[in-house]
Amino acid sequence: MNILKNIFKKINTFxxxxxxxxxxxxxxxxxxxxxxxxxxxxxxxxxxxxxAEVPTTIDELQREVIVVEEQNETELAEYFVELRKGxxxxxxxxxxxxxxxxxxxxxxxxxxxxGMVGGxxxxxxxxxxxxxxxxxxxxxxxxxxxxxxxxxxxERYIFTDCALNIDPTAEELADIAYLGYEASQFFGFQKSNMxxxxxxxxxxxxxxxxxxxxxxxxxxxxxxxxxxxxxxEFQFDTAWDDAIRNKKAPSSVLKAPVDIFVFPNLDAGxxxxxxxxxxxxxxAIGPIVIGLDRPVNDLSRGATINDIYNTVLLTAYLCIYKSxx
Length: 325
Description:
Mean pLDDT: 91
Helix content: 40-55%
Pfam family, one: PTA_PTB
Distance between the termini: 26 Å
Radius of gyration: 21 Å
CATH architecture of the largest domain: 3-Layer(aba) Sandwich
Structural class: alpha/beta
CATH class of the largest domain: Alpha Beta
Keywords: Acyltransferase, Transferase
Protein name: Phosphate acetyltransferase
EC number: 2.3.1.8
CATH topology of the largest domain: Rossmann fold
Pathway: Metabolic intermediate biosynthesis; acetyl-CoA biosynthesis; acetyl-CoA from acetate: step 2/2
Number of domains: 2
Shape: globular
Oligomer: single chain
């Protein structure tokens, strides 16, 4: 079964409705997606700054509506100050809770929504920044990362990190790799194979970036990931093609095609997923943020209806795993 169909099936058979909040409720694209969610196990919550923004046709979407100007500003601000442990004043908090993005993230933190999807009009920093300050990373995680689920027919791969960490250190790259492994477990990858990518394969090239990837590989290898073989540093063709890998790295522990690709920096990751998407015909679902204590995902401003819908599905799917923690 196609992985997206499997995800959709699991969402719709989950024990209760999954609430996903959208800080950009006034976006036509978001409202279109909300309409597409009718009849699923996902309940959209649309946030509007004022009552005047709420369209007269809103009842057709079978959703919940939150209007910022109608909320108890003081109560929310006091809650925000408490969360930040004195790192923000009450007056500053009152300003921020009037913003749709902050209100939506507070809703997730309070458990009034299971996850959030935004970014049609907001920059990444306005989605992920508040999430890091309010929801924060999971207790077991040092770094928050992102990945794309690359899908073509029955093929599926994880590309990480393609959206958040610009030039990670070796230790951070190892954390990114581990979170990529964790993502693979969410999506039921069986006996996965991970490659840490470089312009070098096992010492064929030299440089600080090669050293970084090699160190990251050693750190990941020491984690002894269950049901996951890891190798690196690898050029992409070595990771992708078994025949080439047998020539360039005959002693590699990888004996099957790689399904988790760890890129050395954001340049490589962003370029790599877009090449696979545009030239390879893969559907790039994401970026999906991993490592936060609750699911929050950022959209591209140019996200299509299909992009948004798929991101909502994956966000809801991650909510299922969060509820089972």
